[in-house]
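Thread: Modeling a multi-component assembly for a lab meeting

Hi all, long-time lurker, first post. My supervisor asked me to bring a structural picture of a complex we are working on to next week's group meeting, and I have zero experience with this. I have the sequence lines for every component (548 residues in total). Could someone generate the structure of the whole assembly? Inputs are pasted exactly as I received them:
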Amino acid sequence: MRALVRILSWVYAVAIFGFIFLPVVVLVLFSLQATSFPIPPFTGPSLRWYDAVLADTRLTSALVNSLLVAALSSAAAVTLGFLSAWGFARFALPGSALMRGLITLPLTVSYLIIGMGLLVLFNWAGVPKSLLAAGIGHVVINLPLCFAIIYSQMGDHQINIERAARDLGAPEWKVLLLITVPVMAPAIFAGFFLSMTFSWDEFVISFLLTRFDTTLPVEIWNLLRSGLNPKTNAVGSLVFAVSIVLVVFFELMLLRRKPA
Amino acid sequence: MNSATNSGRALPRAGRALPWALVTPALGWTLLFFVLPFVAMAFSSLTPHGGGGFTLANYSQFFTNPAYWQAMVNSLQVTAIVTAVSVLLAYPFAWILAEQVPERWQRLALMLAVLPFWTSYVVRSYSWLLVLAQNGVINRALTGSGLFNEPLQLANTRLATIIGFVHFFVMLLTLTIFANLKQLSPSYRKAAADLGAGPVRTFLHVVLPLTLPGIMVGAFLTFVLCIGDYITPQILGGNNELLMPQLVMMQIGRRGDFPLASALSIILMAVVTIAYLACARWLKIERA
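Re: Modeling a multi-component assembly
Sure thing. I ran the full set together rather than chain by chain. Output:
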């Protein structure tokens, strides 16, 4: 009986792993395709489609845009999230629960609707579509995430260190910069890198709020109109690689808090 | 979560401007770029296309135009199927990872199981197209092995949309259910065994009910993310049948009809809110 369960478990786990990895393996495999169609039979290996991606200025500038928007919007989200998390964790404010709820509320609304709302608002206010407009939207979706991560890591032991610093005469800004930020650094970096992965990959908001200069997911979307194409596979594999690097940073930052 | 313990002790009295200076930027951002846009959208949904005056026409269009109504029916059907299939596939998988895989391999196995999570969402849907297309991997395998003479029509169908969604949500649900199973104290199982329950009874009467809240949270997340998603149905489903997000985007893209798009978005949000209220007792997301 036990052995049967074991065997069935193995079969099932392998099947699900297969299902989960199938599209990714196909994507990466056919990005190495030597001929023009990303379908069987496999004719590779060849790096020609990676060359084609790197030679495509639309794609490379979209890649730079994506990284720029991701870095700046994540920095803004993590700064706002950190300051508010510190404020809520350290001081008694009237209506605090309600305000915390408001900050985390965007987590429950789909990106499409957040993007729609901003589009309608900017349209009325006469704000043109731009990377800045999309970046504002990215802060909206990542701020609650950064706030939740950092707020959940504000433990009691940090209060005592801060109190000691105050007792020794440090003004608030010094407590913040010299004590809280270093102590909270793992959570701050974790929030930053997680935001980076989400912003870097975000499509709908960027699609709605940018026009000429746009981000990589939107450019990839435009590429899809040309049908199946190994170049799309190559750019997709590159996006995957960048995401994995960001996730590894996120993991390292979150794991580092353990010894504390 | 830790900071909940803070409320038990006396926090410094907020007599000065400092605490407000800390929380105002985040609050201001949320009010200005999340609440205000929503108000603008609500306002816009009550104006006719082209402006001037107020009207309920955008909302009544939804209820009277069968094509719009059908998009909501399609969305609800697809979302319900995706949620059910994803839970049914993910639960045994999470259970195997938590119970059958040796402790020291669990973290690695889980990381592997969610690795494709981090591919670009647009690209992930596209890669399913490579698998499901007329001359894609599956059809080549089927016709090559002589099982079928004709390639199957897999891409641009509802089935393709569902497969793409299930792929994404199996990963998500595996994470939430795995976490839930690991939180379960082993003493419950021991107690059940001591009282004479076999493994099957223990699972059905102890483990499953105790992990139900986790399943519900995961299922709710699946519902919200699935019903509001535009990418997967647009890439994989084609335009044979429209889901709600596709309908919303169509109003903007092709017709520039912001008021109607706003009204449809608000209806979509209302559906999510109803779903939230329906399973609110299991969902304590706001405490996260």
